[in-house]
Design brief:
14 helices; about 400 residues; ligase; Arginosuc_synth; EC 6.3.4.5; nucleotide-binding; ATP-binding; Argininosuccinate synthetase, chain A, domain 2; alpha/beta; single chain
Length: about 400
Amino acid sequence: MISRKINKVVLAYSGGLDTSAIIPWLKENYNVEVIAFVANIGQSKKDLFGIEKKALKSGASSCYVSDVKEEFIKNYVYPILKTGALYEGSYLLGTALARPIIAQKQVELALKVGADALCHGATGKGNDQIRFEMSYAALAPNLHVIAPWREWKLHSRESLLKYLEERNISTTATLEKIYSKDENIWHISTEGGLLEDPWNRSNKDCWSWTVEPEDAPEEAEYISLRLKEGSVVAINNQELNPLKCVEKLNQIGSKHAIGRIDIIENRLIGIKSRGCYETPGGTIITAAIKAIEQLVLDRESFQWREKIGLEMSLVVYDGRWFSPIRESLQAAADSLSSSINGEVILKLYKGSVTSVQKYSPNTLYSPEYATFGKDEVYKQSDADGFIRLFSLSSRIRAKNKLK
């Protein structure tokens, strides 16, 4: 508990079981006014329907809902795509990217209404508690932070349901809802249930957006993506803003079972966890960016971009969005992306996305040099001197061993 008197708390509210219980718990244990904040980042309409009324019935004095979908994709997702960040080689950071914008808007509201504290519903086992509180620390270090899961004695779904029932607070959560899902416009994740045993195969209940690969169309679909400075700006020659691009590609990709991963990842806190993640639009965009990078980036630049992507994946995953290292990595990626312009034709078929045609005005690929036929621009004898110099240290080392 915090020793200093707290009068007003802004809670990052989702309307789910945890945050529904947090509102009355805060009032009972801290005797505070609770203001609920909801960030609309593209979760299902079912989750958002009646959410203000639900928060008020749970005991909140007011509920603010902010639509941040467009800002989320434009200012958080698209910049990170330029870096090539993939956590542990496959995760497009769907949940991790959403937390800093939620925290930022929550802080802005707290400062506007004169709140003393911030509260989130992340558990003490997960990454989100770190992501929220790293953002709070960077944006509003003077505000107190309350993390109920690290304080209360309600440590199971059963206890939370009983707690709400005793206070006559309704919830749509039940004991039968065994999966934990996190959804935004960029991705949806599924954890818990049978996935807690890594030997269990995922089933249809573990996937929400994408069809089973076996049920995807028998005929491949070809789509065109146009890129400008590392960002998709048009689909099939139709210019769209970042949000509309993602929405359209999510729809197309889901139909073809694109963007599924079933992984066991290393959480920052040290626990391994398993999840089924779906990022159909993101997977398609990533394939398009990589296709143009192959044409444009020289060997050293590509290796540097790979290093940027690896480091950025850790920075975002660990909740260090509002930090100098994130800004520095982003600046480096933006510099490399200035020449990532062109068009890509992608083939979508039963879970796979393949670049089949690519063009860039900045390409370094030259058919005259690459041809296996006769050419007039490359002297193969020039390779002799290059190889002798490149292998010099190896030859010296071998001679030393013979002495």
